[in-house]
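Re: your question from the hallway

Yes, I did run it. Sequences:
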Amino acid sequence: MSDVPSLLYTDVEDDLRAAVRSMLESHSPWARVLERTDGDVAGDRKLWTLLTDDLGLAGLALGEDVGGAGASWREVAVVLEELGRAVCDVPYLTSVVTATALAEAVGARELLAELATGAVAAVAVPFTQPLDHPVSDPPRFAAGRIRGRVPAVAGAAEADVLLVPVAGAVVRVAAADARIEPVPSLDMTRRVADIDFGAEGGAAATVLAERDAVPAALARAAAVSAALLASEQLGLAQRCLEMTVEYVGQRRQFGRLIGSYQALKHRLADLWTAIAQARAVARYAAACAAVDDKDLPVAASLAQAVCSVVAQQAAEECVQLHGGIGFTWEHPAHLYLKRARADALAHGTAGWHRRRVGALVDLPPVAD
Amino acid sequence: MTITSAGRVDRTAVLPLEPTEEERVLRSTVSDIVGRFGHSYYMERSRSGEPMRELWELLGKSGFLGLNIPEEYGGGGAGLTELAIVLEELSARGCPELAMVLSQGIAGSILPLHGSAEQKARYLPGIASGAEKFVFALTEPDAGSNSHNVTTSAQLDGDEWVIRGTKYYISGVDHCDHFLLVARTGTNEATGRGRLTLFIVDDPNIAGLERQPIPTALQAPERQFTLFFDGVRLPADAVVGEVGHGLRPLFDGLNPERVLSAVICTGVARYALDRAVAYTTQRQVWGVPIAAHQGVQHPLAEAAIELEAARGMVWRAAALFDAGRPAGEEANMAKFLASRAGLKALDTAIQMHGGNGLADEYGLADLWGIVRLQQIAPVSTQMVLNHIAQHTLGLPRSY
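Structure:
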């Protein structure tokens, strides 16, 4: 833990945030996000190109040797805060974080170079499933072919490449070789899809890692994903608080600004303190991921245990304190609420992570 | 006032939505009596460890202590509901009386059902008038929530029982005239559980019995004790009910105990909210009474809502018990809700008093112990949840 640097935002991080925010304000206003949720296309391709080509955010955490920017997961976390703030529909978490972390952990340099230029990858594991938690019926791999199905994978419909954990290996499959069927979900700003590699002939697959290397790689990618998801949740929560503070400072009832009532201002003060705690654990998790600190597994699960709850609380308060308007389609609150709800399930629930923290800090397991 | 002479068996499980005229009169009469003493009386006795004797005697003389005792033994022949009303009014005026839970509540419920004719004639009139007080010795260092683990033993020697062992957290022994004792008279070979027997210890100063006070944060006239039994000899007729079946009479005392513990909490909650309303409407900061702020109003309103919800369950449990219906679930729920509502109301009232919340003059913080206690005794909040999970919901036993 002593190796973890200051958790305060650096000047570089502030500049990065400003650049991303400015881009998102111009190209992903919430009205556009809302409009896209009615359409058929998963992922805002135009926005993705701007983020990856213009701002170079795809290879942020990757080394310059594979064409990356040579920054770290900390900077990626700042980008995720901004993406969460704007509930953007881009496969950043799924590709730049989860798939990249797994590609890095298995040493797939060729793939990393593709990812650094903005190619989109997805790990074929259900979005609600922690990567290192075994799935009941994983796809089967033999003789260069993969067969079977994986349900409810986030970022799959947008992906060029699929990384698939199978028994004793992680394999690479071209997305074009699989049948990817988008399914309706609560959060239409991050769609999920069922992947079918076929039962008979299956799809062509190449091995990226085998045997002993697999569990550690999945654990690493799982921890980085959980750690970084917390920053998206933090950004979302922060935005919900800001919108709500702004609203109660304008809306009048009974001849007064409603923000002057203690019942509301105290509630928002409580939310502020909850978000301050969420920021602390999210930043710590990102910093642990950045320097690969040995505390990362605890930090990641702690971040999920806290941020999943706080993001939902913030979104719920946003709906409630906006009164009737917060309940309408014409207000973004519902987008945040749905994202917060889906994020709370992603990569393991808060309860699952609490249990894992218990195991990591040597608390006796629950008797079965 | 007149109290109906209808026995418990004649009562139906009906709960009026509004208090009857009789209940109104009972409440106001008791409240007036307690009001003559006030919370400062309770505080003074908590410090000295002397019982609230004058108040107790006045209530006894007026017939308010024995409301649940059959008339033939000098009681009011009413029920737990009426007894609980008295204790709630005591508590609502800042004088919660734990002795009522033990003496009238437990002993006064068990003896009419399980006592011999001689025991009833000997002890019930004293319980009814308040002239003789019972306490209750069940828990041990290794037998708290799990009564089956009682190790204090009773062995027959000729026609006398010889008691050896230790009892722990026994309340008010220094104020009592007699106490009920649970001891092991054998072991069920099949289950390993103790065969328990209930005894009356007529003389708390009997030879071979030592007591040692346990200092606690509870500020009440009753002190807590460890009891050491070293060859205490009890006559054969000290047994209540059957030898080896002491749990049966014991269980008949549990529901009244829960209901009466609950009304201590609801009564203190009413007291605390009364004090908070009086204080916050009078105390001015920044030119307005602090009660004008939502930050003050809403927590008090929330406490009031939770209090009324808890009271609804309390009176329902008492009515079911008085009608002779199963009341375990409701009595447990009542204790659970009331102990939370009491703690919340008191804590909120303390907070609304600012610095004065801890001052003796305002008479709030000294009640924390007796309300907080009800999260642990007579049954812990967690054991209530276990009970409801298992018996109400049919979930597997978890402990």
